[in-house]
C-alpha cells in the first residue's frame, strides 16, 4: 500500500501525475475545518460537507446571533447522525475586531483620492464621506501616514470590496483618511485592520465571555479559537475563564495569530495554547507579502516539534465564487501540507461561498496528493533530533511505534488511549498510515451520578493530522488484562476492515498500556 509513496527528492514519473487519484475511505490525513454559515447550514449541505471530509465545524461569532448559530448546530447534529461521521465544534471569538457599522446595509462607493472620515459615533449613517466604527480609541492609536485596510468580512485584499486608506489627520475622536483605491463596500459587516498598530481592547471581550458561558456551555464546545491572541497571558486568561465553566475545562484553546504582536510572542503563546491557527488573512496585511511564507514555515515547524496542531487559513479564497481554485491556491494547499500543517481552515469559502461541498472535496484531494510525497523519513529524523535524549517514556514509545509501522509497512496503527495524549504523540511523528485512536471512556462520579468521559477526547483528535478516533465500549478499560483488550482490538480491527484501511494479510501496529507497562506489538492478519 505504501510502497507507491514517492518523495519530492526523487524524480517524479510523469505517469504517476497522469494517473487518476484513487478514492480513499479517509479522503486525506490532513483535516478540514469548515465555517458554517448562510450557504452551509442546511442538514443536506452539512451532510455533504461531512462526507466530503470536514471533521471540525467552526462557528464564527463575528456575525449572527447565538440563536442563529444554535439552529445551525442542531442541523449539524442531525447531519452527524445520518452520515455517521464524527464532527467537532469550534467556537471562534470576535476579540478586539474593529468593524464598520453599516445599519442600512446599503452599498458604499469610495473613490480613489477622495477623503473619508472614520468616527466612533455609531448613531451616524454610513456613507462614502463618513463611516461609523465600533471603537472609540482609533484616534489615539493612529498617526498621520498609517495604513488602514477595510473590507468585506474575510477579505482577500484582491476583490473590489476591499479598500486601503491612509490616515491624513486626526480630529478629536475622528480620523480622516485618503482613499487609495476605488471600491464598493456591500453588505452589513466590514472589518478594519490597522497595520502594525496595537489596538487597546481585551482579547476576550465581555460579549465573547457571554457567548462562551451560554452558547459554549450549552453545547460543550470542543475547541475555542481565540481571535487576535497577542500574548501568552491571553491564553492563560481564557483558560482560567473556561476552568470555571464545568465541562469546558476540557475545551482546547487554539490561539489565533493575526498580527505582528502575536508573532513577536509566538513561542510563549505556543507553550500555553493547545494548538495554533495561522490567520493568514490579517497577517498578510500586517506583514510585507514577501515575509508571509517564511512566517508560515517557521510557525508550522515550531508547532510540529511541540506536537501541537497547526491550522492554516485562507487557502482557496477564489472558490468563494468559483468551482475551481487558481493554480497558485492549489499549490498553496499542497505546500501547507508539505510544511507540516495538521488542518486547513475554510472561512468565506464555506460560510458564504457558492460551492461549500466542492471546496472541501477539492482541498481534501489536494491534501491527499501532497501527503503521498511528504518526506516522512526526513521529518521523523528531524523530530527525533529535536526531542533529544533521554526521551520521555511516552515519546519513546510513540516514536518506536511509528518507526516499527513504517519498517513493517503496516496499513494502520491502533492506539488505545483515554486522555488522547498517546495518540497525539504518535501523530506527532507523522506516520504514513492512518492512526486509529481507540478512546476508552473513563467513569467519573460526583457522588450523585456517574458520567463517562471520552467523547471530548475523541472529537479533539479530529483536528490532528492522521488521527481517526473511535469511541470504545466503556466496559473495556484501557489499562487492563489482555483478554478485555483483545475484544476492544477486534472492534477496532473490524472498524478498519469496514472502512477499507485494513485488508487480509495486512500488518497492524498496536500501542497500548498493560498494567504499568506500555506495549508496542505487531500483528499480521489472517484471511
Give a structural overview.
The model has no long low-confidence stretch (mean pLDDT 87). The protein is α/β, with parallel strands linked by helices and 527 residues long. The chain starts with 13 loop residues before the first helix and ends with a strand. It is 36% helix and 24% strand. It is globular. Strands 1-2-3-13-14-15-16-17 form an eight-stranded parallel beta barrel, surrounded by seven helices. Helix 2 crosses helix 3.
List the helices and strands and how they pair.
Layout: H1 14-18, E1 31-35, H2 43-52, E2 54-60, H3 66-83, E3 88-92, E4 98-101, E5 108-110, E6 115-119, E7 130-132, H4 138-141, E8 147-152, E9 162-171, E10 174-179, E11 183-185, E12 189-194, H5 206-218, E13 223-226, H6 232-243, E14 252-257, H7 260-264, H8 266-272, E15 275-278, H9 280-286, H10 292-306, E16 310-313, H11 327-339, E17 343-346, H12 348-351, H13 356-372, H14 376-387, H15 393-407, E18 412-417, H16 421-428, E19 435-439, E20 442-445, E21 450-453, H17 455-460, E22 467-471, H18 482-498, E23 507-514, E24 517-524
Parallel strand pairs: 1-2, 1-17, 2-3, 3-13, 6-7, 13-14, 14-15, 15-16, 16-17, 18-19, 18-23, 19-22
Antiparallel strand pairs: 4-12, 5-11, 6-10, 8-9, 8-12, 9-10, 20-21, 23-24
